[in-house]
Amino acid sequence: MVFKPNGETIAATEGTTPEQIETLIAQLNSITHADCIGGLENLTIQDVNTQFSVRSVSDVYLATVSSRSVNQKAVESLTKIVAPMVIRLAFNSDISSPQNTQPLTDKEAVDAEAAISPPAEEPEANALPQPEAPPEPSLPKPPVTQFMVERIGGILVPSDTVRMDSEVILKWHDLYGGKQFTLVSIETLEGKTVCCKYKPLKEAKPNAKGVIQVPEKIIQALDSGVGKLVMVKPVID
Amino acid sequence: MLMKQQSAAETQCLSDSAPTITVGIGNSVFTNLAGTLSEIRKLKGVLGYILRSKTAAIIDLTQREVVVEYAMLSSQIHDCSRIVAPQFNLADVESSLVEGKTLKVLCMDIGENRISVFMDKTCAHAWIVKRILL
Question: N or C: which end of chain A has fewer CB within 10 A?
Fold first, then answer.
């Protein structure tokens, strides 16, 4: 079952009674000293044959009951990765929010990386819907574009400036009706964010699409590395 | 820190690393568990443990300042699992594990003895469960 700490039940299997949910919520709320271990992320109760697990996913709890005799790796994949991902997708439609990107595991990051690996493909798969109408009084939400990190260095390379596809920059300018912006926000899949200046890539290499050239200093600040994925969006005042 | 309590009224704090444990006559389970836990305590990532029976308790935790917090948390977890388990048709609870962002706590009831082991999240709690149940 999926429920909120305030008692609101979002989903439950057949046969789950309100009493069960009420008791569970009351007991979870009674664990008031969990701060000393960094909050309550997961509770697992096991008997000889069965295990009951409650996992905190964003703002809701996911409770599952499973047999201990089944493949535990499969159960863990379902309860730790698949179900939380579905819940997050259902509740956080904005994929650019750190809430959504931060809990990604390394495995998910690798999967995501594999999904965009063909360089000829459009790298802006995660761009948010762009407004079709002419500029509105309120600015549209900054579009998020996914890039793969490439290291850039040299004497003449400023350490606070990244280089990225000029087409993407052009699209951003078009989107905001020529409104100038000097900074971009770079966010890793782990949720670390850095704002820095940007420049278009000097020469348009055929495989430059989907690549962002980042100085070593910024790579370290992001705790990222070459080949890792980052989400980039313009910083609009 | 090691805390030995032989009755509700009498509580002592001992600082030596090799504690001597005196318990009521006939409580051999408590003594055995104390021995097992002192071995588990040496494992990498294990921060300490609380062992409590009706008449005695041992608290062996590295950080003195969090003893009260840990003891309260331990008690809350035991109570929670005792009430929640029957609601979901779990018969005899073998272990309860609570994971936080930084640490995790393994709680077990062996007869009248309550065990709570505090450890890093990377620590293999399944092995500890097996070791205690041996």
Answer: C
Give CB contacts under 8 A, 24+ apart, made by A11-16.
Answer: none
Full set of structural domains in chain B with CATH: 28-52+62-133 (3.30.450.30)
pLDDT at A101 over 70: no
Residue in A32, A20, A33, A43 with CA at minimum distance from that of residue B96: A43
**Between B94, B104, B105, which is nearest A47 by CB?**
B94
* CATH superfamily of the domain spanning A2-116: Dynein light chain 2a, cytoplasmic (3.30.450.30)
Q: What is the ipTM of this complex?
A: 0.81
pLDDT bin (cut points 50, 70, 90) of residue B16 is very low
pLDDT band for position A206 (cuts 50, 70, 90)? low
Whether B17 has its CB under 8 Å from any CB of chain A: the answer is no
| Structure letter (DSSP) for residue A126 | T
Q: What is the DSSP letter of A79?
A: I
Helix (H) or strand (E) holding A105: none
Q: Which of B84, B99, B101 sits opposite A27 (nearest CB)?
A: B84
pTM, to two decimals: 0.55
Q: For residue A30, give the chain B residue with the closest CA.
A: B76
| Residues sharing a CB contact under 8 Å with residue A1, sequence separation 6 or more, in sequence order | A9, A11, A12, A13, A16, A21, A62, A63
